[in-house]
Amino acid sequence: MKVGFIGTGSMGSLLIDAFIHAGVLTPPQITASSRTFAKVQKLAHRHAGLNLSLRNSDTAADSDIVFICVKPLEFKCVIDEIRDVVTPDQIVVSITSPLLLHRLESELPCKVSKIIPSITNLVGSGASLCIHGSRINEEDRYMLENLMSAISKPIRVPESHTRVASDFASCGPAFLAFFLEQWIQAGSELTGMDSRQLNDLAGEMLLGTGKLLTEGGLTPAELQSRVAVPGGITAEALMLLEASLHDVFHKLVRTTHHKYEEDVRKADALFNSEQFNQQQY
Ligand SMILES: NC(=O)C1=CN([C@@H]2O[C@H](COP(=O)(O)OP(=O)(O)OC[C@H]3O[C@@H](n4cnc5c(N)ncnc54)[C@H](OP(=O)(O)O)[C@@H]3O)[C@@H](O)[C@H]2O)C=CC1
Ligand SMILES: O=C(O)[C@@H]1CCC=N1
């Protein structure tokens, strides 16, 4: 199996590093191209034998599966470059959610899926969200999810729920890191404890909490009631959090969905404006 990566910024290079590290792909199986060629050269230094290409069309032509790892508004340029070289038996995977499957299928003659990774996949952890297009068959699904299972837990979600699922799977690490950063800073400022030590404690705590929610089968509510003994310290602090954050999560979900809808509209408009221009002239 040959796998291509178009766009080797943060996530493209993370996926390449993770697949190679997991042993599920070898460098010679991979072809990569990116707008800034130095970024693919850096990857090739890390992974001897990795194939570099100067053109996205060459990456696409050389691969059975092509991961497109660019931002939503950069997508159309890539589609324009690869449209004429991909064939019906190839699979193009978008790692970004605002490009809708019906749009991708109408622009490309090949099979299409969206697989939304997470920074946690770098350490072989966390979920990857799988949203398959109508041309993907059972064998393709197995191949894609088997590949993703080497670095993550693949979870199928309907396209209509991609955003909220990504809030947890992909944005979630940043949200929790924000929470921890503020908390560590306050803890260190108010007590003088070394923030690096608090950082280690926070990481271990988060890892253990994750295990309790997955392997341990606890719900977040059950976990709180196991820790917060009635009349105790945790219960007191939880009341403070509830009072201070009462509607922040509704606002958070609304914010991510608002930005997502804006990106869907903008990405779609890039394709529509061309169709409009073609109709005009
Ligand atoms: N960061 C995350 O945790 C997650 C991100 N995603 C999604 O992944 C996508 C990429 O994110 P991320 O990797 O963080 O972004 P980056 O900006 O780090 O990477 C995007 C890369 O695409 C390259 N690029 C842009 N246009 C082209 C083009 N026409 N041809 C080839 N390469 C091109 C850019 O090149 P250059 O270096 O020249 O700018 C850049 O290296 C986003 O849409 C995001 O939604 C999904 C899940 C998690
Ligand atoms: O912030 C972003 O747009 C991307 C989507 C999921 C994670 N990062």
Give the count of structural domains. Answer: 2
Tally of separate helices: 11
Q: In CATH's first tier, which class of the largest domain applies?
A: Alpha Beta
Helix content: 55-70%
Backbone structural class = alpha/beta
Pathway: Amino-acid biosynthesis; L-proline biosynthesis; L-proline from L-glutamate 5-semialdehyde: step 1/1
Function: Catalyzes the reduction of 1-pyrroline-5-carboxylate (PCA) to L-proline.
Main location: cytoplasm
Protein name: Pyrroline-5-carboxylate reductase
In short:
The chain is an alpha/beta fold and 281 residues long.
Description:
The protein has 281 residues and is of the alpha/beta class. The protein has two domains: 3-156, Rossmann fold (3-Layer(aba) Sandwich), CATH 3.40.50.720; 165-251, ProC C-terminal domain-like fold (Orthogonal Bundle). Helices cover 57% and strands 12% of the residues. It is built from eleven helices and eight strands. It has helices spanning 10-22, 37-46, 56-61, 75-82, 101-107, 138-149, 162-191, 195-213, 220-227, 233-245, 248-280; strands spanning 3-6, 30-33, 51-52, 65-68, 91-94, 111-116, 127-132, 153-156. It has an eight-stranded mixed sheet, sandwiched between helices. Strand 4 (65-68), helix 4 (75-82) and strand 5 (91-94) form a beta-alpha-beta unit. Helix 7 runs antiparallel to helix 8 (195-213). Residues 166, 170-171 line the site of (2S)-3,4-dihydro-2H-pyrrole-2-carboxylic acid (A1CAB).
